[in-house]
Amino acid sequence: MSIAVFGFAESSGPAGDLAAALGLPYHQVETTRFPDGESLVRVCGEADIAILYRSLDHPNDRLVELLLAAGALRAGGARKVLLVAPYLGYMRQDMAFRPGEAISQRIIGALLADHFDALVTLDPHLHRIAHLSEAVPRIPALALTAAPLLAAALERAGEPPVLVGPDAESHPWVEAVAAPGRLDVLVGEKHRHGPRSVEITVPGSELVRGRPVVLVDDVISSGGTLLAAAERLREAGASGVSALATHCLASAEDLARLASAGIVPVQATQTVAGPAATIPVAGLLAAGLREAGWLNG
Ligand code: R5P
User: Fold this and answer.
1) Most buried pick, 36, 38, 98, 212, via CB within 10 A?
2) How far is the CA of 268 from the centre of ligand 1 (A)?
3) CB within 8 A of 179, min separation 6: which ones?
């Protein structure tokens, strides 16, 4: 029985790292665009169990090619096609806030379940549901947490900081990052007024006076949450503010805004490519795939 990892050009580094961590061959998925915008996808290799790696940030660009690659792998003889999507896009919209809104979490989750035999991701952006299987039905869907990797990144940082989660939803997760180093934790209260407009208060912020603070979140998107939280923490006397997240989707402009606001460094895992993506996830993903037993035939 043959098993291999397949990855797209933009993620050949981390996908290759996953193949190396699993001791498996790595094959490239080639994509080209026709002048009308359609994609031509070609998988270069075959396997009985194909592990297809693609982070689903920029999902409007990436989803169709992903489904085409899964189909090509099956046509090439794969009995199982497993999706490794270190960042799983479209999980945020989990209800219709206004009549007629598409609940993207359910629609995209069901679409992926139709095309893959199992799925693994890291820290999916789930708020009102407890388990990824509620968003991705019918197939095994594994949500790993990067909290231990973030905790290890903190250990290297020297002076023990206060960890601050920006909102109540982040509480258990920030606690998990703080636990190994027994670090102090504060949790903010967030009110979102718009995609880039948030208001944050941090109860108990007197604790940070004269101390370094690390803002910990699952996702950095526009960076607005970090900017608002950092302002409060500086007012409270923090000696420095940095940030640590599983996924950093922020654009270069947004990262520059964070740097100008003195939020340095901003570190994230390698789920989403970019200057903040410094923490490797291949070992965690490899362990998750092995423990799930999906590579056993
Ligand atoms: C919210 O629920 C998330 O945990 C993040 O705080 C949020 O997605 C960050 O978005 P932004 O960087 O645009 O404020």
Assistant:
1) 212
2) 14
3) 151
Q: How far apart are CA 145 and CA 247, in angstroms?
A: 11
The answer to whether residue 156 scores a pLDDT higher than 80 is no
Question: Is residue 209 a contact partner of residue 236, using CB atoms and an 8 Å limit?
Answer: yes
Catalytic sites, residue numbers: 190
Burial (CB count within 10 angstroms: exposed 0-12, middle 13-18, buried 19+), residue 129: middle
Summarised one tens digit per residue, pLDDT across range 57-66 is: 999 999 999 9
**Atom 10 of ligand 1: nearest residue by CA position:** 221
| DSSP codes, 157-172 | T-SPPEEEESSGGGHH
Residues 130 and 43 in one domain: yes
Q: Whose CA is nearest to atom 5 of ligand 1?
A: 219
Distance 225 CA to ligand 1 centre (A): 6
Is residue 241 in some structural domain? Answer: yes
Task: Give yes or no: residues 78 and 120 share one domain.
Answer: yes
Question: Do 102 and 175 lie in a common domain?
Answer: no
What does the pLDDT look like over 21-53, one tens digit per residue? Answer: 999 999 999 999 999 999 999 999 899 999 999
**225 and 200 Cβ atoms separated by less than 8 Å:** yes
